[in-house]
Amino acid sequence: MKLKFFLLALLGVIATAQAQNTGTVTGKITEKSNNAPISYATVSLKENGKVVSGVNTDDNGDFTVKNLALKSYTIEIQYIGFRKYIGSVILADNKKSATVNVSLEEEATQLKGVNIVAERSTMEQKIDRKVITVGKDLTTAGASASDIMSNIPSVNVDQDGKLSLRGNDNVRVLIDGRPSNIDPAQLLKQIPSTSIKKIELITNPSAKYNPEGMSGIINIILHKNANTGFNGSYSGGITFGETAKYNQSLDLNYKTGKVNFFGNAGNNFGTYFNDGHIKRLDQDVVQKLDISNDNDNYLYKVGMDYLINDHNTLSFYTNQNKAKGTGLVNTDIDYNNGDPDIKNIYQKSRYEGPNETGTYNLAYKHIFKKEGHTLDFEGNFSNTRETQDAGFDTKTTKPDNTASSILYNDYINDKRKLGTVNVDYVNPLNDKTTLEAGAEARITRTDNIYNTSNPAVAPADQASIYVYDTDIYSAYVTFGQKYKKFSYQLGARFESYKVAADLNHGFKKFDDDYITLYPSAYLTYNLNEKNVLQLSYSRRVDRPSLEQTKPIREFSTPLVTSYGNQELRPQFTNSVEVNYTKTLEKGSITAGVFVRAINDQISRTLSPDPNDASGYKQILGFANFDHNSAYGFDISANYKITKWWDIQPSVDFSSINQQGVVFQYDPATKLSSPLERSVTTSAFNARMNSNFKPTKRLSFLLFGFYRGGVEEIQQHRNEMYKMDIGSRYTLLDNKMNISVRFNDVFNTMKYSFDGVYPYPQNGQFTWESQTVYLGLTYNFGGAKIKKLERKQREENTNQGGGGMF
Question: How do beta strands 122-125 and 130-133 pair?
Fold first, then answer.
C-alpha cells in the first residue's frame, strides 16, 4: 500500500513539474467592424516557421492552446474573408500564460494586390487556373449561367447554348467539381445566374485532374454558405423578348454549433424563339425553319456539414435538376426550279418530354496535425432519366397542287447512371515540398430505347435498344517543390479505360479497352512579387460521347438526318502553355500562349445521303480526322482607371489546322465524290466590360463583344458582334439590388454561314438576342458569411484532386 501511495505521489509531482514548465496561450477573435465573435478561425503557433500547435476558435470566438514549451512563438490567426494576423508570444518562467485578443479586419484586397469591389467581378490567376468571382455586374448579364458565360474571357456560347473555350468546343463542364449527366448546354440554362459563386477556367489541367476535355475544364461553383445563425437571399428576374421569361432563386443557410445546413433552389421558365433559313444555290432550294421552345426548369441543392472535431468533417449534399418542355419546329422547304416531279414540303414537329437528374454526394475530410496535411474520401452518384415523345406531320405539295401527308411519332427514353468513388491525399513533406496522390473509380451505365412509326424507316430499324457502358479506374501522383523564385510540379496519371457498346442485343457491338499514361509538368518563376511566368505541359483525351456514337436516327428534318458513329476513336491532345501574370497598382494583366498537337480529332461531317436518289438529302455525322495542330493566345486585364470607373478588356485568338474528307457534289451526274481538304481555321474574339459607379448606390455597365469570321473544313462562319448596356441600384443598406440590362442594343447578333461542301449553300439563324433583363436581389438574416474551417476545401486549389474531377 505504501509503495502504491509513493508511486501515485511521484507521478503527481512529475505531472506538476511538467505543468509548471509549460505555458498556455488564450484569447478571443472578433470582427473589427462589429465586435462579433469569429468561430472556427484558425490559430497557429509557429517556431522557426514550423507549426508547433494550433486550434480553431469555438462558437464564441475563444481559443486555448495548452502544454507549450516556455519559448518565443509566432502566432498566426486566419479566417477566409479577413486579413491574416501575425504577432508574437513570449512564454517564460515568470510569464507562463499569455492572452491574445485580436479583432480581424475584413479583407479589402485580393491576392497580388488586385482590388476587390463588391459591385464587380474579379479575376485571379492561380497556378493552374483562372478564377472569376462572380459579382453583381455579371449576375446582371441575364437570368441563367448560359448568359453569364458569354461575358467570361476565352469562353464562347453559340445560339444553341453550346460552350467553347479558346475556340474549341471540346471542353469539360463541371458543377461544384463534379461531372453531370445533363448536357452542358441544357444544364447552364437551368442554373440561375445568382446561384453562381465562382467560375474556374482550367486550360491546361495537371495529372491530378481527370483528362477529358481538349481545351480544358470549366468548373462552376454554386453558393454554399456556412453562415452563423439563419440567413439567406432571394433573386428574381424577368427577360423581355418576344415573350417574357422568368427566373428566381432562393438561398438559405442555418448554422448552429458543429452543424451547418445549406440549400438553394431556382427555376426559370418561358418560351424561346429561333428561326433561320438554309439556301442551296445550285438547285435554288430554300429550307426555312421556325423554332420555339417552351421550357420549365428547376434546380435545387440541399446539404449539411458536420464538424466532428477540429480534424474531422463529414458532409452530404444532393443536387436535383428537373426540366420539362415543348419544342416546336416548323420546316418549310420550297423547290423553285419548276420541276413538276418535285414536291414542296412543310413539316410540323413537336418534341415533348421531361428530363430529371439526381446527384448525391457524401464526403469525409481528415486534417492531420501538420498544416496542409489532409486526407479526403468522397462518393458521388447521379441518375438521369430523359424522355422525348416527338410527333411529325409532313405535307408535300406538287406544282399542280396535288398533296399528300404523313403522320408519325418518335419515342426516345434515355437512362444514365454515373458513380464515382475517390480518395485524395496531400502531404507537405516540408515547407518547400508537397506530395499529392489519389485514386478513383468511375462507372457509367447507359440505356437508350428508340421507337418510331415512320413508314420511311425500314421495319428492322423502327425499334432499337442501345447500351453504352464505360469503366474507368485511375490513380495519380504529383510532386512539387518551391524555392525562392522558382517552383515546379511533376505529375502522372495512370488510367484504365473500358467501353462496351451494344445495339439490339448483339446486332452491332463495339468494345475498346486500353491503359494510358497522362503526364503533366508545371514550372513557375517569380521574376519579382509583381511578375510571374509559368510553363506547363499536359496530355489529355476526348472520348466519344453517347450522342456521338449512337447509330440511331434521333434528329431529322426532311433534308438532314443525324446519326452517330459507333466506331469513333478517342482523340488525344498534347498541350504546352506559357502564362504570364503582372500585378499593377490598380489591377492586373494575364496573358497566355498555347500550342497543341491533336491525334484523331473528332469532328462533325456532312455528306450526301446514299439512300436518296434525288440528291437533296444529307447525313450529319461524326468522324475522326487526321493529325491536327493548334496554337493561340489570350490576354485579359482588370484595371481600375478611377474610383468610379474600371474596365475588364480581353482578347483571344486560336488557330487549328483541320484536315479531313469532305464530299463534293456533281449536279450533272448527281453523284458525290470524296475530297481530301486541309484548311487553317482561325478564330478571334474580343470583349470589353466597363463599369461606372457615379454614386455609392448607382452603377452602370457597358459590354461589347466581337467574334471574327471562321473558315472551317466544310463551311465559313461569318463574324458576329453586339453591345449591351445596363444599370444597377442598391438600397435598404445594401441588402437589395435592382438591375436592368439591355442586351444586343443594335440587334446585330446573327449566325450566318456559307460553303460549297457537299453543296453550294448559305444560311442564317437568328434568336432572341435583343432582350431586356430586369432583376432583383434581396439578402436577409442577421449574420455575416462565416465559413467553417473545412470550407477551406472549397477555396483550396487542391479541390481538383483526382476524385474531385
Answer: antiparallel
Give me 180's grid cell: 453531370
Alpha-carbon distance 487 to 526, whole Å?
Answer: 9
**What are φ and ψ of residue 220, in 5° steps?**
-100, 120
Cα–Cα distance between 420 and 400 in angstroms, integer? 62
Beta-carbon contacts of 805 under 8 Å, excluding residues fewer than 6 positions away, are 172, 174, 177, 179, 205, 209, 210, 217, 219
- Report the side by side order of strands in the sheet with 62-69: 62-69, 22-31, 97-104
pLDDT of residue 801: 33
DSSP string, 538-592: EEEEEPPPHHHH--S--EE-SSEEE---TTPPPEEEEEEEEEEEEEETTEEEEEE
Q: Which grid cell sits at 188?
A: 447552364
What's the grid cell of residue 668?
A: 450533272
**CA–CA dist 31, 785 (Å, integer):** 12
Q: Identify whether the C-beta of residue 578 lies closer than 8 Å to the C-beta of residue 592.
A: yes
What's residue 106's pLDDT? Answer: 67
For residue 805, the model assigns a pLDDT of 28
Q: Which residues pair with 386 in a beta bridge?
A: 355, 414
538 band by pLDDT with thresholds 50, 70 and 90: very high
Q: What is the C-alpha separation between 11 and 14, in angstroms, rounded?
A: 5
Rounded to the nearest integer, the mean pLDDT of the chain is: 81
**By the 8 A CB rule, do 694 and 644 touch?**
yes
DSSP states of 147-210: HHHTTSTTEEE-TT--EEETTBS-EEEEETTB--SS-HHHHHHHSBGGGEEEEEEESS--TTS-
Record the cell numbers describing residue 134, joined without a space.
Answer: 462572380
Give yes or no for a contact between 657 and 628, defined as CB atoms under 8 angstroms apart: yes
Phi, psi of 794 (to 5 degrees): -75, -35
Residues in the chain: 805
Number of helices (H), then strands (E), belonging to the chain: the values are 6, 44
Q: Measure the CA–CA gap between 235 and 779, rounded to whole angstroms.
A: 9
Q: In whole angstroms, what is the distance from residue 477 CA to residue 493 CA?
A: 7
SS3 6: helix
* Rounded distance between C-alpha atoms, residue 578 and residue 785, angstroms: 37
Place of cell 463588391: 118
Cα distances (angstroms) measured from residue 151 to each of 115, 703, 706, 763, 773 = 20, 8, 11, 26, 15
Q: Are 666 and 674 in contact (CB under 8 A)?
A: no
Distance CA 131, CA 149 (A): 13
- When pLDDT is averaged across residues 114-130 and rounded to a whole number, the result is 56
* Cell (9 digits) for 581: 501574370
Give dist(CA 804, CA 316) in Å, integer: 14
Q: Vertex 282, ends 278 and 284: CA angle to 5°?
A: 55
C-alpha 735/C-alpha 243 separation (Å) is 30
Q: How confident is the model at residue 797 (pLDDT cuts 50, 70, 90)?
A: very low
**Beta carbons within 8 Å of 681's beta carbon, 6+ residues apart:** 655, 656, 657, 658, 710, 711, 712, 713
> Position 239: which residue type?
T
Contact (Cβ atoms closer than 8 angstroms) between residue 306 and residue 300: no
Q: Is the bond into 758 cis (omega within 30 degrees of 0)? A: yes
For 136, the enclosing helix (H) or strand (E) is helix 136-139
Q: How do residues 376-412 score in pLDDT, each as one tens digit? A: 999 999 999 999 999 999 888 877 777 788 898 989 8
Q: What pLDDT is stored for residue 15 in this prediction? A: 43
Per DSSP, which regions of 281-400 are E strands?
Answer: 285-309, 312-335, 344-367, 374-397
Distance linking the first and last C-alpha atoms of the chain: 65
CB of 173 within 8 A of CB of 187? yes
**Are the beta carbons of 513 and 469 closer than 8 angstroms?**
no
Banded pLDDT at 511 (limits 50, 70, 90): confident
For residue 557, pLDDT over 70 is answered with: no
pTM: 0.75
39's grid cell: 468561430
